[in-house]
Amino acid sequence: MRRLNTNIINAVNSHENSITVNFKFNGKIYKGHKGESLASALIANDIAIVGRSFKFSRPRGIVGHWSEEPNAIVQVGSGAGTVPNLKATQVELYEGLEAKSVNGWPNVNFDLMSISGFFERLMPAGFYYKTFMYPRKFWKTYEKYIRKAAGLGKVPSEPDPDFYEKLNHHCDILVVGAGPSGMLAALQAGRAGARVIIADDQSEIGGSLLYSNSKIKKMSGYAWAKSIENEIRSFKNITVISRCTVFGYYDHNFLTMIERCTDHQSLTSDLGPRQRLHRVRAQSVILATGAFERPLVFANNDLPRIMLASSVSAYINRYAVTPGEKLVVCTNNDNAYKTAFDWKSLINDHVTIIDTRRAVQSEVIERAKAMRIKIIHGHGVIEARGRTRVKSVLVAPLCMSGKEIIGEATEIYCDVVATSGGWSAAVHLSSQTGVKPVWDNEILSFRPGQAVQSQKSVGACNGSFELKECIEDGISVGASEAKRLGFESGKPKQKIDLPETKDEHPTQEVFCLPHFKPLSRAPKQFVDQQLDVTAGSIELAAREGFESVEHVKRYTALGFGTDQGKLSNVNGMAILANALGKSIAETGTTMFRPAYTPTTFGAIAGREVKKLFDPKRYTPMHDWHLENTVEFENVGQWKRPWYFPKSGETMEQSVRRECVAVRNSLGILDASTLGKIDVQGKDAKEFLNRVYTNNFDTLNPGKCRYGLMLKEDGMIFDDGVCACISKDHYLIHTTTGGAANVLAWLELWKQTEWPDLDVFLTSVTDAWATATISGPNSRKLIQKVCSDIDFNNDNFKHMEWKQGLIAGIEARIFRVSFTGELSFEINVPSNFGLYIWNKLIETGAEFDITPYGTESMHILRAEKGFIIVGQDTDGSMSPMDMGMDWIVKSKKDYSFLGERSLIRADIVREDRKQFVGLRTLNDKQVLPEGSQIVRSKKQTIPIQMEGHVTSSYFSACLGHPIALAMIKNGHQRMGEIVYSPQSDGSVIELRIVNPVFYDPKGERQYV
Amino acid sequence: MLSIYCPYCNEMRDEEEFSYSGEAHIKRPEKPLELTDEQWGQYLFFRKNPSTLHAEMWNHSSGCRQYFNVVRDMQSYKITETYPIAQFPESLDISE
Lengths: 1007, 96
Ligand SMILES: [Zn+2]
What we know:
- The complex is a heterodimer of chains A (1007) and B (96).
- Chain A has 25 helices and 49 strands.
- Chain A is elongated and about 115 Å long.
- Chain A starts with 19 loop residues before the first strand and ends in a 14-residue tail after the last strand.
- In chain B, 9% of the residues lie in helices and 34% in strands.
- The interface between A and B is medium-sized, with 25 and 30 residues.
């Protein structure tokens, strides 16, 4: 065991409060402490290899201690609740936790792929791009191995057993990150009275102070942070949310954050929502997201137990575990010296500092000397050695710039290497708002660019890496933002203790250490460990002509892992800049996009799953449909009866029966979903004249008219029957799916171009239930249920409507037909829909009334050549294309919507696709809808497309298949034979015919 | 997600309550049938694509259902003003 026998104040594992738990890693049971990270427990159990690398299958160990971790990626749990791709550094330990490495085949300690070794030669930069261009045979051979290697974890195959929720917030100031600067910013703003939310992704707030043993006045940094936290929590106007990652920063200060509520307890606990998505709109955002330490790049730097210096300190100070016994610190800056101090004071004397800088003066260096820590200046670690973990490092003297080796290397034995190449500000969130980060050569880091939203960056994420600066920055920005929003502190400002300023010697501009061999031939120097991107492959990309960072990233996959290149981006850019002979500022940066860290789909979906995923709309007759066997079809959000199978019937059989019943006797359709818009006002008629192609001047009360609406480009947009209720009152019907769009379209014109018209539009779709009875016996039925209307053909003509009592209910009866048969559409207030439906079914029994669904409705109308907007049209058909010239009537006063477009050169050209019918020469073949039509059986490439099939059915009434199609110049090609090649290689022969297949003279609806 | 001030509701509301409705201040020609194809095409198809302030029409579709105009910066997405139909913006000259 590698636990420290210590009572460090900030240690999660200090003796008083540690609870021992059992956990499983890669099938073996270990002991750990509740609440420590899985990574810490693995280190305590002396486990060095936690996975295999993505491409080369090299053994990999823990590098970091939080979200920057590239290697320790685990699958947690099993079964339905299993979660892939968690970082062991962020998983909090609980009793019974099970984790597996996601990479490593057949297991992490013995790996077939690394033995074979050829994968290394096989996968240079741009591997995937290159492979797809080379012979396919090659790809097929290795695909299964590559796929196995490439997967990161397994998604559960069962539905998620957990639930998630969402919360919306509005606040004055959102502070992102509760490190020293974030805490102080929140405190100052809270003291002034602003409503503040402070979100932090760790289990405890305090940021870097949780992990360091810095001193502030006489207090430890940790105790100081606790005192600040206590004051923050005393304010009612400050909301602290821990274990909460702000992962997206969008327009107008809208941010999304995920709170992990129960993940640290167990994966399937019944304690409430597993995660919570917070949606925050903030007046001002203060980003205090900190910085990531940058590893130095050198040969074999991916060996297990080569870690970030700050992470080595973190494991010692917060978790009281040690990754080894003998430390080499490899640095170009002062900061990493703290790791040597932590080691020396809490572990042992075996620590050596290798500093790339020549002998320099600074407070930490003086202190190191005073502590008798061995420092080798002007040297760098150029190569690590070892098989499954680091055993030694090669250390060589470097020139002034650190770019060349100027002498013999010596080997130093060690079992831990702490590396530090400086710090990179976490500019991810500010970058998500569209602000390009700016390179600052003084601090060797990017800084956030000029903010476009009401936003400030403070502390390390703004390039202030020194503790005192961070705290001061937080204090001043917290206060000034509160003041800007109109909050002035009434209370006297309490004094906040500050740490002392330290004299630091600047970080040296070294990213990748030299080797005796050139980059391409030296042992691999890893830049992005998660995706196995080496310094050599970045250099190769530059040699192959890639100059833009964005291209190099895609070519090499740099920064494309689940860590989004938190450790690798800057090093990668520095290496690219060097290869291109440019500066980092010239090479540029890439933009960061949401999500900052991987995010569960469950939290994004929240409660909008299963029943609540999408609302369902039911007609008033729905209960009757359920009581009788029915299959539903989804039409928009509506559940519409599709067909009504009798026992033992297939869909085909029931649809045939339904169609024949309508043609021979009587059918009934639930048409309640049809869109209905009530149009009233003195100018209602003028309004309709402007939006329809027809002339409505002649439409008098009691009459109905089929109308077509066009968009301004002359293309058919919607159709339906319009009824004149009274002089200033009309009811227009729209397609079921188009109802909302039509209303918005009509409102647009009414509100913007014609505000002077006296007209009111109201959606009444849900107010009416509609039962359509259709067939030769429909008059007989309606006469039986309605006695106050004379249904005689001379009194109640086709395309008329009348008001009457049906079974005591006021009804509007429209004599219109979508089947070509005598039909009546009976409209009653929704609440009476089911009652009237039952009445009609009951009374119609003597005519063997047959309920039919949308499928039969589609066939019956296709037999008549009636179009369905959205099926036979797709927004590129004019009325002329559909053979509906008769419906276009120019009106004197106002040119109706789309009229001018109908005489555009492109609309009047002859070879436009036109609406026709198609008959298969073989009467058994039903054409698949969407089939393409060609002119000849022997097509030569490029094949000339003549058109496509829009509707196709078998017509039981006619005894043969029918189809509707759009074919070039089709109206002039009646009788012509054309062909339709199918995906199985066959070709269907067709004849172009009139689209009206049944009752071509249209007599049946007039009887 | 944008935060938009509806000049009819007189409130800041989230973008998800609104729908976008294209460029604002496009007047339908008075006599369409007297226009050439090119003139009609200008009205029908040609839209501005500025990299700075742009006047656009929005509809408070899940709210009061009114159409109104918004002036928005096409790079920063900052909204400088919203105003009812038939009024003109202060932050942008739309005369050209
Ligand atoms: Zn509104």
